[in-house]
Amino acid sequence: MTDKPYYHEDNNEVALLRSWVLRQMLRGAGWSALVMGVLIGFFLVLKVISGLLPPESKEAPSPYSYLEQPLTGQVRVS
Predict the structure, then answer these.
(1) What confidence tier does 21 reach under pLDDT thresholds 50, 70, 90?
(2) Whether the predicted model's global pTM rises above the 0.85 cut
(3) SS3 letters for the chain?
């Protein structure tokens, strides 16, 4: 056989450190995938709900209409 230790034995510190780093990176990737899945699911639910609403509900005036209108008259600063 061989006299080199296996990767799962405690006397090979480099391999243990590498496997720990890999586990931590995979754990972070899993958490980010979970968060992104929840966000995408939330937006898909909103899209389905908006599709169930009548078309008249989508014809509301812009909430920014007062910002888009030009100013008329003089503005007095006191």
Answers:
(1) very high
(2) no
(3) CCCCCCCCCCCCHHHHHHHHHHHHHHHHHHHHHHHHHHHHHHHHHHHHHHHHCCHHHHCCCCCCHHHHCCCCCCCCCC
